[in-house]
Amino acid sequence: MKHDGDAPLTPPAAPTGAAAVFGERVELAERFVAILADTGVSHGLIGPREVPRLWERHVLNCAVIEDAFPLHASLVDVGSGAGLPGVALAIARPDLTVHLVEPMLRRTTWLAGVVDGLGLHNVTVHRGRAEEVAGSVSAPWVTARAVARLDKLARWCVPLLDEGGTLVAMKGRTAAEELAETARSLARAGLTAGRVTAHGGAVLDEPVLTVDLDRAEGSAARPRAGSPRGRSRSGQRSGRGGKRG
What we know:
The chain is α/β, with parallel strands linked by helices. The protein has one domain (12-215): 3-Layer(aba) Sandwich (Rossmann fold). Helices cover 32% and strands 22% of the residues. The strands form two sheets. The chain has a seven-stranded mixed β-sheet, with helices on both faces. Strands 1-2 form a two-stranded antiparallel sheet. A hairpin with an 8-residue loop joins strand 8 and strand 9. Helix 2 runs antiparallel to helix 5 (86-92) and helix 4 (54-63) packs across helix 5 (86-92). The radius of gyration is 17 Å and the shape is globular.
């Protein structure tokens, strides 16, 4: 693929730390990076200026949070977009069952093609907003990256989270401050025991921070009737079936 003056966008080489995270599946991760550098850019999912740092800022950055999830865990990636973190996690951890939730048809079509092309049998793609798929999609673990502030994210994610489950929200350097500022709203949403966890310090220059919040047993979580931005015009689109293990 070419962009801006017919200059080819060459995917960056895998850094040393990639093998430590992806193991024998590092070649599959390299294929994902190549797709992001090609159709990920042409579909507007990744900016062309992001291509040189696809590993450190995006794919490896997302994959390192795999240590948040136990063996054979089932998780929902809300607002998956370019498959980050969901696809990266599914490559690093084939034992995971991953549900990608994304409202935009263009993106879900692209995601389904990526899932099929990479042969990720442990991934299912769902088209719809979080509040629309609530009731049909849920898991003990929910994750999201750069979707919304914690209080708003909680309203969307809690209905997808099983009682006693954990929301693992990828956040930046101000994770602790955001957690403190939204603590009351999070408690009202039924999320407790908030903590900031660092991931990937051994393979990244700067560790990735997540805010981890547990859904209290017995807390109510009803699917919301609508969205702050209006409902999407579609229901759900699935990719390849999620095979456990």
